[in-house]
Design goal:
Elements (H helix, E strand, L loop, with lengths): L3 H9 L5 H23 L20 H16 L4 H21 L4 H23 L11 H17 L4
């Protein structure tokens, strides 16, 4: 199994251009948010009614997907896991707020954010002159958010 640093080094090979990096700082969290939002928007079916009361809206396909991602991050690095847990918590909270506000349907906002963010990411990779890493290995779709968090850890002097 690759170390977190090995994943980050390989991911970083196609993310050296400052414009592409800036695009990723904006679009990777938006893609993560919108992916969870799209999963969140799938009718709960067998999940409905499993959790009573106030916790009930939190059991959906989005939060289950997030738990799978968190298991990946825990396996990647137990030291990086708390940062990923905070990021994932913020994403869940944001999706819950959008879903409950009902100003715009969560699924619609998620589709727009997802499409626009991916389009901008591809522009960033055109500028970079390299293909997105996930073309090589689909796991890089989960590495992107962790790659951003690892920079926060490095800036704070926290080992990962």
């Amino acid at each position: 199994m690759k170390t977190a640093q090995a994943w980050f080094d390989e991911y970083g090979d196609s993310h050296r251009n400052p414009t592409n990096k800036l695009i990723h700082w904006i679009c990777v969290p938006l893609i993560f948010f919108s992916t969870i939002g799209l999963l969140w928007s799938i009718p709960r079916g067998p999940l409905a009614g499993v959790l009573p009361g106030a916790a009930e809206p939190l059991l959906n396909w989005g939060t289950l997907g997030m738990l799978v991602a968190l298991a990946f991050y825990a396996r990647l690095s137990l030291r990086l896991f708390p940062g990923m847990l905070l990021l994932c918590g913020a994403i869940v909270w944001g999706n819950l707020l959008v879903d409950q506000a009902e100003a715009v349907p969560l699924w619609l906002l998620s589709v727009v954010l997802f499409a626009v963010s991916w389009a901008v990411q591809f522009v960033g990779h055109k500028i970079e002159g390299k293909k997105p890493s996930f073309f090589k290995d689909v796991q890089f779709l989960l590495i992107g958010p962790a790659w951003l968090v690892h920079f926060v850890y490095r800036r704070a002097g926290i080992p990962y």
